[in-house]
Design brief:
Number of strands: 0
Structural class: mainly alpha
Radius of gyration: 15 Å
Helix content: over 70%
Oligomer: single chain
Length: 83
Amino acid sequence: TQDTALLAGLSEQMQMARENALLGNYDASLVFFDGVLAQIQRYLKTVEDPFVRSQWQQAKEELTGEFRIVKEISQELSRFREP
């Protein structure tokens, strides 16, 4: 179905986002997080069931929080690299 196609690879992308963050590859992690969030946003546009929509919206908000944390770490580390 279309839903399955929109969510294909989501789990793997999330795993890569988190693994890269754990390994200190923050820029790569942010790319994966951004892709996951964009994929969820596209999926949300197709969801009609209010319960399912709210579940995915909550998941998106939680992942956005993770994205922000990784981004803050990346920005903080870049300050150390600047002369």
